[in-house]
Structures are given as C-alpha cells and as structure tokens.
C-alpha cells in the first residue's frame, strides 16, 4: 500500500460500487471493499487482487456499528469514503408495510450515517465523503420508501457538509438516474421500457458513468467543493418534454 491514499467503498461487490472500486484503483487509491453479501464481494475482490490491484475486502453490514468501528480503527488511514450501499424495491404507497418502510430507511440512511460517523473519527483534514443518493429523491411512482430514504441521504449530505467543514472534511453527493444495475433489472420489462421512454436520451446509464462522477469528488485536487449533489440521470431531472 505504501503511501497510497485509501478509499473505502460500500456496496462494493457489484454494480455502481464495483465500478467505483475499479475507477478509484485506476486513479491510484488503495481500495477497501465493503459489502454485506460475502460471496460476490469475495469473488470481485479476489479477482482484482489476482490482477495485482491494491485492494482488500471485508464482509459486514453498514448498520453494524461495532463491526464498522473495528474496521475503521484497523485502517492505516482513510482519505475517501463512498457510501454506496442501499436496498430498493418497487411498491405502491397503499401496499407498503411499516416494516418495509423502516427497513429501507435503516439501511439507506442510518447505515450511511453510521459509516460516516465512524469514518470521521479516523479521517484527517482534506478527507472526502461521497454519499450516493438518487434522482428519485425528486419524487417518482411506486417508490415512496426509496424516495424518502434518498431524500434523507441528500439532507444528511448537506448537514454533514456544514458540520464537518470546520474539520476540513468535504462531503458531497451523487444522484444517479436510470442505471443498468441489478436494481434496474429487478423491474419488469414493461416497467423498464416505461422508464427508458421518459429519458430525454432514451438510454440507460452505466455504472461507470456514476463512478466517473464519484471520482471527481474523490480526487484530492477537487477542493473548495462541499454540500453539493451531482445529478447524473441522462437529463431526466429536467422533466418530460410536452412537445
């Protein structure tokens, strides 16, 4: 590892998280991969290690504060935290259970809070935190718990940015739109096509598109930027053209 900067990425076993790991490795970081799903994490982590990449992987839940704290204390340094881990499902408002609502908030918001709070205990001035929210925080159909959790992620990002500015820690967020991940593929083909049709670009983004945005905030040369939400959604947040 030598004097490499260290980046920790949650939800790193696949999708946006794994794409981010690869991008940060290319940018010269030592990357700590975290995911609660041990099998895909180990498969991805071992493949990168065998390719000679500076990487390690740890299976744990981001809501398990004791496990998170133990990992943070074991790191030689921590320069970047990417809070990417999240859960998602479709569901109309009148069909959502209270347990479903609480479960999504617990992972998507509380988990992000736990990771960040433990991270800042070991971070130094100049460190960067990037929270992955979603364009969905602006609203959407059949996503009430997810919308709420990602709106919470945006609010948490801004609150953290204010509170951590005096420590010299920069906090920003990414709001992906329609991205080709397992989350998107879990939708029915009809729902997928409905969402694509609403895109100004009529395309689905790739995990690498989001990784590029995360890399901008993770770059130590990106200074004097905090409390910002970068939306990467193929223009969907502009609305639907009436013409």
Could you give the order of the helices and strands? EHEHEHEHEHEHHHE
Low-pLDDT stretches: none
Q: What is the CATH architecture descriptor?
A: 3-Layer(aba) Sandwich
Number of helices: 8
Total count of strands: 7
Widest β-sheet, arrangement of strands: 3-2-1-4-5-6-7
Our Rg estimate from Cα atoms comes to: 17 Å
Strand content: 5-15%
- Give the % helix: 40-55%
Number of domains: 1
Helix/strand-derived class? alpha/beta
Structure description:
The chain has 243 residues and is α/β, with parallel strands linked by helices. It has a single domain (6-230), classed as 3-Layer(aba) Sandwich (Rossmann fold). It has helices at residues 15-26, 38-50, 65-74, 98-119, 144-165, 182-185, 189-197, 207-218, and strands at 6-10, 30-35, 55-59, 80-83, 128-132, 170-176, 229-232. Strands 3-2-1-4-5-6-7 form a 7-stranded parallel beta sheet, sandwiched between helices. Helix 1 crosses helix 8 (207-218) and helix 3 (65-74) packs parallel to helix 4 (98-119).
Topology summary:
Blueprint: E1 6-10, H1 15-26, E2 30-35, H2 38-50, E3 55-59, H3 65-74, E4 80-83, H4 98-119, E5 128-132, H5 144-165, E6 170-176, H6 182-185, H7 189-197, H8 207-218, E7 229-232
Helix pairs in contact: 1-8, 3-4, 4-5
Short structural description:
By secondary structure, the protein is of the alpha/beta class. It has a single domain (6-230), classed as NAD(P)-binding Rossmann-like Domain (Rossmann fold, 3-Layer(aba) Sandwich), CATH 3.40.50. It has helices at residues 15-26, 38-50, 65-74, 98-119, 144-165, 182-185, 189-197, 207-218, and strands at residues 6-10, 30-35, 55-59, 80-83, 128-132, 170-176, 229-232.
